[in-house]
Amino acid sequence: MEVKEHQKNFALTTPLYYVNDVPHIGSAYTTMAADAIARFKRLEENAVLLITGTDEHGQKIQRTAEEKGLSPQAQCDKIAASFDTLWQKLNIQYDRFSRTTAERHEAIVKEFFQRVWDNNDIYLAQKQGWYCVSCEEFKEERELVNGGYCPIHTNKKAEWRDEENYFFRLSKYQSQLEALYEKNPDFIQPSSRRKEVLNFVQQGLQDFSISRVNLDWGIEVPPDPKHTIYVWFDALLGYVTALLDPDDEPTLENALSRWWPINVHLIGKDILRFHAVYWPAMLMSAGVTPPEKVFGHGFLTKDGHKMGKSLGNTLDPIALVERYGADAVRYYFLREIEFGQDGDFNETRFVNVLNSDLANDFGNLLNRTLKMAKKYCNNETPNLKGEDIAEDHPLKQIGENLSDRVTLAYNNLSFSQACSEIIHLVSRSNKYIDEQAPWSLYKQGEQKQVEEVIYTVLESIRLSAYLLSPITPTLSTQIYQQIGFNVDFNNPTSFHQELSFQTHRCWGILPPLQLLGKAKPVFLRLELPEENPL
Ligand code: MSP
């Protein structure tokens, strides 16, 4: 893509998901959030790189493949494809899908390892400890629960390891990391997570092991091929490999030349330590600037309970999106849960939120306004401009700086705040129609007033659809098209041709006498099925 003068580069990542199992709702959650940010940044006409992918090495994957009678690579290919299927269904527009079994990735990992090695940050020592294969992480004995089980995977017993490993000198980076957190207070977000990390670091950092013996499914340690590189050391570098253009030679220099530093890594709170402590230290050791931000979101529960296979209450994201559609699923999770906090899925609540905000408030507003425009204004936008509307008009007042507030919310990853700002304008527009009763005004021959009502409401609908498009792109496209614009929010080139962000982010730009489309319901009321609850 050609980069225009005013364009900025914005690169962001989801975690690279393990391929031991098909995607769960937690992976879908982070990816929907990442896609919403990427879409917002593209709307602002930035050059954006959204990276997602899969983390394919390590013992967990090797064992799963063995249990299923597959080769590890066949297991990876199968599950990586199922992630891609889900991303298509959820309308995720990623730019790169990074797989850690890709050949180019191996070259990047080996070069990086060599840099860290040359910096004298890797040494051989004996490692003894409890290892959780599901986390792919050593645990302190005091962390284990129920006599030896992982605190996160409470049905998985930690395994004792006593082997020679290569270690990374994390302890050497204690003060540099502290300086990084101090100098960049926004590096770890939200602030509650920042505190967790600061506490952890203050207790004193210990070197961690970055190789395994007796494990083939991984990248060999260049100077000692009996060892394979620890899956986390390998996986974090998947973010770097993803930055290579398709024809690039796989070198660190090429990978880091355009998009680095990554602007934000979106992750769940359980993998914060890897991203906010180990990763920047590894980068410092290799002479690479750390990323700009790590955002650790909360955990999802279902009907108030922790989700888990063994608990038999997982929520299948494919079933969810097939039942309700991508926009509904995206809207629920981003609107209903404050990003950063834990949140819950409940199907009744899901149906209620969607019906209330998108079917009743937004969909109905568009429908009733278009019907009035047809009846009272020849199915065209009234012959008015934004500047004809008085400054103290109630919708203009909200609409005029709505984009500033919503932009701030998106930039802070406060999706629920962005949604509630937008829905506030929608609800106020419904109320305004009821107050004005244009059907009576029309009967009284007050055509000018009728036109003002219709113009200001249509313009508020347009702006709301525009600002909500990163979350509900298909719904926003339908709304825009019914208002007479030839725009598809799922096709960035189409909206850049038709709209400039500087224009369409403003209230009052709806052109006069624009032919309107046919009023068709854009969001049908959802029904809670009587059987097969999710
Ligand atoms: N492979 C590592 C990441 C490596 S990144 C270089 C990994 N993968 S994972 O598939 O196990 O987890 C992916 C993400 O799902 C994590 O961000 C994790 O926080 C998130 N979630 C797992 N369960 C979750 C919920 N119940 N709710 C929300 N997110 C959850 O970790």
Automatic annotation (TrEMBL):
Listed GO MF terms: ATP binding; methionine-tRNA ligase activity
Short sequence motif named 'HIGH' region, residue ranges: 17-27
A cellular-component GO term for this protein: cytoplasm
Record bears the keyword Ligase: yes
Gene3D superfamilies in the record: 2.170.220.10, HUPs, Isoleucyl-tRNA Synthetase, Domain 1
E.C. designation(s): 6.1.1.10
Species assigned in the record: Euhalothece natronophila Z-M001
Entries under Pfam families matching the protein: Anticodon_1 (PF08264), tRNA-synt_1g (PF09334)
Name by which UniProt lists this protein: Methionine--tRNA ligase
Family in the record: Belongs to the class-I aminoacyl-tRNA synthetase family.
Methionyl/Leucyl tRNA synthetase domain residues: 154-370
